[in-house]
Model the fold of this input.
Amino acid sequence: MEKNFKKFISGYLQNDNIYFYWKGRVALYALLKAMKVTKDDEVILPGFTCVVVANAIKYLGAIPIYVDVEKNTMNPTLESYKKAITPNTKVIITQNTFGLSTQVDEIAKMANAKGIFSIEDCTHGFGGTFKSKPNGTYCDAAFYSTQWNKPFSTGIGGFSLVNNQELIVDVEKVNDQLQKPSIKEKLVLSALLFSREYILNSSNYWRLRSFYRFLSKHNLVIGSSQGSELESTEIPDGFFKGMSDVQLKKGVNSLNDFDNLLLKRKENATIYSEFLNKNNKYHVDSELFNDHSFLKYPILVRDQNKFDDLARKVKIELGDWFCTPLYPVKNNLEKWDLNAESVPSALYLSKHIENLPTDTDNSFKVIEFLKSNINELI
Done:
């Protein structure tokens, strides 16, 4: 099964140096460890990210250094990375935010020239491209997520791609320490996958999303983020696990229709952008489309809570990714070495962002919702 899954993925990435993990954050941790990141090393990353990325850095005793993003791309610039480099910089992490890559070729080239490793965070970007090359193929390595709502899903899960041949031996040595998922974990994941496919729908989306997050936070189910990951920078027990056969099988099935799903996302994004542009609202510029795979479509609203309530009433499946610079943690960001005031653009975006669904079969319904609430959009 792993061989078949790897074949599918290597076809998209044009590289077969691929390694599978229980979650995408485990893939990042393995890469950082293989790069010999250790206590007091600095790792530069966007100040508009997920807490699990910062956690992987903190678990190794290293220091995350955050750089602000641009409002139009929601990614840092090459110059912002350059300014953040110090003699202690060991790694730079660049990101495909919602599926958009920005200057990743120049960032990787700059890092290499300075003797700094580079990693591409492709948790949103699998299947997309930057300047016609697959996302993840510019840096020394990349990591991907196959969690719920990612480009394709194995329930939870992730993998890495290693482009720097000199890293392969060290990555494989690190992977020798991977634990195997338990029978209980595999059974619970199978049940969640069944529920996702046969029970979740637009009428119960909001209710089940809240319930799932509650259960995940309190470690009552296998979740995208366990409670300790949202409260502590100590590595959880059983964190470093490999991918199970349940995930591998689901991955192969998910990729069977992936090309059509990618096309649908781009088509819906085009519809959203045309409407928003026509109404002078924040939108993804058409010039960015070639480098955007549109896992989600970001919009800005005046009042997130009000907008969520409006969407809930008409059963529009909005996302809230990056409603905080260190998603989903909203308080005590300094625990992860982040001063939110140091990333003002990211802070502004986090207070106003919502995500439109791009995998929907009914973009007309979404447009009608936006029309009805046009004054709520920025």
